[in-house]
C-alpha cells in the first residue's frame, strides 16, 4: 500500500522498476530515507541522510524529519553538518574519538564547538 507514496517521495522516476544495483548512491539514499520514514518507528536512526541528494530532496527530507519530531518519535540524527543539526535537533551530543565530550541543548553545544574549533583546539 505504501509503495506509491514511497516512490513519489524518493522521486527516482523511471528507475523505480530498475534493479537496485543500477541506482546511484544518492538514489539509494533517497529510497532508503523514503522507506524508513514511511512507517512510524519508535526510534529512527538517520546517519548523514541529508548529505546526499539535491537541495530539493534535502529540503523535503528536512521537512519530513521535523514532522516526525513533532509527533514525538525519537530520532537519532548523525551528521557533520552543524547547520542542519542546529535546525533539526533539540539536543546535541558531540563525540570525539568515540567519547562524549558535550551533551546539551543544540545551540549551546554547537556554539561551544564552533568557538573551540575556531580557536584551534
Notable characteristics:
4 strands; 121 residues; alpha+beta; two-stranded antiparallel ribbon; two-stranded parallel sheet; single chain
Describe what this molecule looks like in 3D:
- The chain is α+β, with helices and mostly antiparallel strands and 121 residues long.
- It has five helices and four strands; from the N terminus they run ααβαβαββα.
- A two-stranded parallel ribbon has the order 1-2. Strands 3-4 form a two-stranded antiparallel sheet.
- β3 (91-96) and β4 (99-105) form a beta hairpin.
- It is elongated and about 50 Å long.
- The protein starts with a helix and ends with a helix.
Structural class by helix and strand composition: alpha+beta
Taking Cα atoms only, what radius of gyration do you get, to the nearest Å?
Answer: 16 Å
Low-confidence stretches: none
Mean residue pLDDT: 87
Number of helical stretches of at least 4 residues? 5
Tally the beta strands. Answer: 4
User: What is the first-to-last residue Cα distance?
Assistant: 52 Å
What sequence of helices (H) and strands (E) makes up the elements?
A: HHEHEHEEH
Give the biggest beta sheet: 2 strands, parallel
Beta-strand content estimate: 15-25%
Please estimate the helix content: 40-55%
Order of strands across the main sheet: 1-2
Shape: elongated
Amino acid at each position: 500500500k505504501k509503495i506509491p507514496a514511497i516512490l513519489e517521495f524518493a522521486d527516482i522516476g523511471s528507475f523505480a522498476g530498475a534493479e537496485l544495483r543500477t541506482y546511484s548512491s544518492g538514489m539509494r539514499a533517497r529510497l532508503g530515507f523514503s522507506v524508513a520514514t514511511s512507517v512510524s518507528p519508535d526510534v529512527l536512526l538517520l546517519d548523514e541522510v541529508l548529505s546526499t541528494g539535491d537541495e530539493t530532496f534535502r529540503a523535503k527530507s528536512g521537512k519530513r524529519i521535523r514532522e516526525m519530531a513533532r509527533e514525538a518519535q525519537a530520532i537519532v540524527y548523525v551528521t557533520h553538518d552543524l547547520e542542519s543539526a542546529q535546525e533539526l535537533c533539540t539536543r546535541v551530543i558531540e563525540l570525539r574519538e568515540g567519547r562524549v565530550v558535550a551533551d546539551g541543548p543544540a545551540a549551546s553545544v554547537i556554539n561551544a564547538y564552533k568557538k573551540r574549533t575556531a580557536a584551534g583546539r
